[in-house]
């Protein structure tokens, strides 16, 4: 059976993808061989060389979508349980050091497989745990992906993940007014010697570009970059699962359109554009259903309007940007 592959730009690559063809540089020298499974270092190498049109296998393992989701679900459930157990110790009043808090977040990332697939399938995961714990896990995972996309140094990546995991710890400690939880969480971390950067990420994760957030209402350029990333992850998770079982499946392109409409005023444009581009490009090659009942395959993402891709329907190439009456209602 002939293997199918899609052509991606180096900026669209993710760890775990498998090359469908050899890659050569402009001098004709072999860089990577067909069948290579990409890792962060190989992706960074391709980015540095600005390699274009990279062939990626669409089904590198021959597993079905249901098998993928099942494996992801099992791994996700294990880590959700770990988070609940670890953070419940804190809620119960047991003393925990800053070093122990950082280790919790790192253990989660080290033990959880298929990080990239989790973002793609997050809206399919049916959380069976207290919402605040699964929400904390989801935000930490998205922060981990941001760290990879931004190629952050290892220490900064660990801090960002920890800030994401602990961003709502103020809610877990005391049942106070909602708008007090960021400051309460930051104070709790400061008392345990957690770095100032993590504290600020927790303190400012509800600040907004237009000043409508809380608790400090800082000018946008003074909001810590960890907080800007956490705010996107926090909003995305609440818009999809919020750590709770959904009553109905949300179409990812509906979410992308919602974010496109909200990107100005609330979120940092640079980080939001990275996030939306990554989400949209996960679905290149996926089959979708349209509002008129037809089905097709996404073959190109419009970088100027990510929620309106080009779809191959039979022999027709359908540009949904030019057909605003048509919407993607389901990824199938």
TL;DR of this structure?
48% of the residues lie in helices and 11% in strands.
Report on the architecture of this protein:
- This protein is of the alpha+beta class and 332 residues long.
- Helices cover 48% and strands 11% of the residues.
- It has 12 helices and 9 strands.
- It has helices at residues 40-49, 65-91, 98-111, 115-121, 131-149, 154-166, 169-173, 181-191, 196-203, 225-240, 252-266, 269-282; strands at residues 5-8, 23-24, 30-32, 54-57, 287-290, 295-300, 310-313, 316-319, 328-331.
- A hairpin with a 4-residue loop joins strand 5 and strand 6.
- The chain is globular and about 60 Å long.
- It starts with a strand and ends with a strand.
Give the topology, please.
Layout: E1 5-8, E2 23-24, E3 30-32, H1 40-49, E4 54-57, H2 65-91, H3 98-111, H4 115-121, H5 131-149, H6 154-166, H7 169-173, H8 181-191, H9 196-203, H10 225-240, H11 252-266, H12 269-282, E5 287-290, E6 295-300, E7 310-313, E8 316-319, E9 328-331
Antiparallel strand pairs: 1-4, 2-3, 5-6, 5-9, 6-7, 7-8
